[in-house]
């Protein structure tokens, strides 16, 4: 079986683009085990290298059955490898990103690229962090990481065509903050990251797309079409594993969700919802009605 991707990681005193490197325990030999490859990719600080590593993992699992060591424990430095930029600020300090001007559309695309970059790390994190899960768990989230990397690469390329790059605008760290709150248990991770935070994208992406269409930005609209199509599947995977883990813990997925949200300081989803996309992603009409 061909090796999963190996990328030279910087030495402790080397920081690509000035980025912060988590002190991941990496090896020089190629990774042939899926969770180790995901951990290595998670550690990379260069955004393009991380995306390419995640894409390579996706290509590997599509062409062969990878080795999966579900029992392995990894050193955890809490945060993935990140570049020096973008500067992370409080959400209220992120600049407005209107679609009415070219500059506003670039800032908007950058904000979406930042979400997709974080989504790569979130999916890779689900692969390496949680030991003892079924093989399909690891394959599902490795596949999600690859698709998130595709989204990020599309957006990064489009930013480049518009004279900018990822890191040119400030961003916030909300997605990763919830990931850290749920790092010890895959059940709340599924409840509050795919089902809450990522599912919000199903609601807002069509709204953003309409604004971009009104501005005549066909290329940005085409990228958002790809993202929305894939994100329905990603949220569906989160819903599936949330239900599996609830059954394992003797919980009722809908009735017990509110308690999980309160425990981790999260609020219920806010309407209006993209009902059609949420139903395809595994939500029920009953829970959407309850949250209206």
Structural summary, described in words:
- With 292 residues, the protein is mostly helical.
- Helix content is 58%, strand content 0%.
- It is built from 11 helices and no strands.
- It has helices at 34-43, 47-63, 102-129, 135-161, 174-181, 186-198, 200-214, 218-249, 257-263, 275-280, 285-291.
- Helix 1 (34-43) runs antiparallel to helix 2 (47-63), helix 1 runs antiparallel to helix 3 (102-129) and helix 4 runs antiparallel to helix 8 (218-249).
- The radius of gyration is 19 Å and the shape is globular.
Please give the radius of gyration in angstroms. Answer: 19 Å
Strand content: under 5%
- Span from first to last CA? 50 Å
Task: Label the structural class.
Answer: mainly alpha
Largest sheet: none
Q: On the 0-100 scale, what is the average pLDDT?
A: 90
Characterize the quaternary organization of these chains.
single chain
Shape: globular
The low-pLDDT segments are: 5-29
Helix content: 55-70%
Count all strands and give the number: 0
The SSE string, one letter per element, is HHHHHHHHHHH
Instruction: Specify the number of helices.
Output: 11
């Amino acid at each position: 079986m061909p090796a999963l991707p190996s990328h030279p990681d910087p030495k402790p005193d080397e920081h690509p683009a000035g980025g912060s490197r988590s002190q991941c325990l990496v090896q020089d030999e190629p990774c042939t085990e899926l969770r180790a490859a995901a951990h290595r990719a998670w550690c990379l600080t260069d955004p393009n290298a991380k995306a390419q590593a995640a894409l390579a993992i996706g290509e590997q699992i599509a062409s062969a059955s990878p080795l999966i060591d579900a029992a392995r424990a990894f050193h955890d430095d809490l945060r993935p490898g990140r570049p020096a930029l973008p500067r992370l600020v409080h959400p209220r300090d992120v600049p407005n990103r209107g679609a009415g001007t070219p500059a506003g559309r670039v800032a908007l695309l950058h904000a979406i690229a930042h979400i997709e970059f974080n989504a790569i790390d979130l999916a890779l994190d689900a692969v390496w962090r949680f030991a003892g899960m079924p093989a399909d768990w690891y394959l599902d989230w490795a596949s999600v990481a690859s698709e998130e990397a595709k989204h990020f690469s599309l957006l990064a390329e489009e930013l480049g065509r518009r004279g900018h790059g990822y890191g040119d605008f400030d961003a916030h760290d909300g997605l990763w903050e919830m990931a850290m709150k749920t790092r010890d248990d895959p059940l709340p991770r599924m409840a509050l990251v795919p089902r809450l935070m990522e599912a919000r994208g199903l609601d807002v992406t069509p709204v953003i797309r309409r604004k971009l269409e009104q501005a005549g930005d066909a290329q940005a609209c085409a990228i958002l079409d790809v993202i929305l199509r894939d994100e329905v599947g990603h949220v569906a995977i989160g819903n599936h594993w949330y239900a599996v883990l609830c059954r394992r813990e003797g919980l009722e997925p809908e009735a017990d969700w509110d308690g999980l949200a309160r425990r981790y300081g999260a609020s219920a989803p806010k309407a209006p919802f993209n009902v059609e996309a949420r139903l395809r992603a595994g939500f029920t009409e009953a829970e959407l009605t309850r949250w209206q």
